[in-house]
Structures are given as C-alpha cells and as structure tokens.
Amino acid sequence: MSAAKDRTCGELLVRLAAECGLHVSADEAAQCCRHLELVAFWNRRVNLTRIVGVKAVVQHVLDSLMPRPWLPQHGMALDMGSGAGFPGIPLAVTCPHLHMVLLDADRKKASFLKVCAAELGLRNVSVVEGRLEQWPWKPKVSGDTQACNTRHTPGMPSGDFDLITIRAVRLDEPMLYRLGALVKPDAIVAYWSGFMPPASVPHHVPLKILPDASLAEGRRVQLPKKGGKTLSMDEGVAGVKIEGFLERLEDRVYRLPGLDESRRLLRWRRRTS
User: Fold this and answer.
1) Which helix (H) or strand (E) holds 109?
2) How far lies 213's CA from each of 137, 158, 208, 210, 241, in Å?
3) DSSP 3-state assignment of 13?
4) pLDDT per residue over 8-46, tens digit each?
5) Which residue, 13, 26, 27, 44, has most beta carbons within 10 Å?
6) Nearest-CA neighbor of 162 among 79, 236, 83, 233?
7) Are the beta carbons of 179 and 209 closer than 8 angstroms?
8) What is the reported pTM?
C-alpha cells in the first residue's frame, strides 16, 4: 500500500469511527491499515478473507471495534480462531492495556498472525498455534511473554482470561462449556454473531466440573445437559474445578456505515453463584 493510500485508509477509518461514536487515533488507524495491507499481501497464498479494500475497513476493522465499549479493556484476552486477526488485532491496537492471545489451529494463519504482531510492534499480543480442545496449550507463544500473566508459565495461559472474543467461528453449547474453563469470575465471553444470533447458542450455561484424581490425560469428562443427556469435553479440562454458570447478558446491536442490517454482539458473564 502506498503512503497516499495508507493515509487515505487511516483518514477513512478515523472519520467512520468518529461517526459511530468511537475514538480511533491517527496512529491507531495507521496500524490497523498496516494490518489490512498485510492481510491483502498474505491473502495471495493463505485463504484469510474474501473481503478486501475499502470494504475491509468497515466490515473487518470497524466491525471489530464497534463492540469495544461493551468489553473489558484491561487484563488478559483470548481471540478464538483468530484467522486474519479480527477482532483480536484491532482491539489490541486500540486497547494497549489488554494482552491479547491470538489462537488459531492453522499453521499458516498462525504464522501470519506472528508476522502481524512483529510488524505492528504489538507487545501486548501473543500467538498460539493450537485448538481449544488442547488447552492448556503447550506451544510457546510469540510476542512479549513478559506481558503475560507471570503467575503462569509463558505459553500456557490458564483459566485467567478477562475476555474471550469469537468472530467468524461457529459457537455452540459444547464450546461455551470449554470456554467456561478459561475465564475468571465476572469475565466476559463475546460473540460477533453477525445479523442474526444462532438458534444453537443458549442463554445460560451451568458450569460444574469437580476435580477427580482418577481422570488421566486422554480421558473425557461428561458434562450435564438438560433432558438427561450429556456432553463430552476433552482432556483439556480434566481435573479442573469450575463453579457457577455463564449468564447471558443483554445483546448489543449496532450498525456499520453503508450496511442496511444491524449487527449483534452476544455476551456471557461468568458468575460463581
């Protein structure tokens, strides 16, 4: 992207954000536009997104930032299935006190995210190549590990996240159970649901997995479900004690410039009682 195009992109993002009631500084906009430039370059060899150019400013960057006022902006965050880095990277750029862990199972996409974090100088971003079911994650993270929660071994984030973000990833009840093992009390799970919330996403998710010394790695944990049925979770949560429930909060609805239909953000807060 030329300097003129980069300046135009930044000015557009600053203006559109202001029209939507958001403050994005010129420096933050420049970083977000550099991110888009990297997406466009890598998109030639890695399938990151079909939305590019000016549309990406609105439908990726601005869409990532619109829910920011309704989310924690300090502490540890996890971006599930980060892919091209939305919403994780725009949130990390504009929320410097939020340490964002970008999780993706695809090796090429994880490599792309590492390049982005380095190119943008985001010391509050780490990248993990892995799956949710493989928690606790063993690969070392990239980025500034000193910014990670020092109570835990760098590269193995524990159940201490203040925020989990999910966008362009299918969310269902089993995934919400797994996410319950990763968040601290009063933490937020946020889901960019697009135009319509999926029917499979529940309002409240009870969480109760009691420690069991007999559970060895490789075993599965049976979780209660309404109607007497059970859900299975992988060994990533074996022996972890989770109490309380995920409480569905009021949905947040917002509009993006140039799009007719409203978008919806679904949120859950972990309660202990």
Assistant:
1) helix 107-119
2) 21, 19, 16, 10, 12
3) helix
4) 999 999 999 999 999 999 999 999 999 999 999 999 999
5) 13
6) 79
7) no
8) 0.82
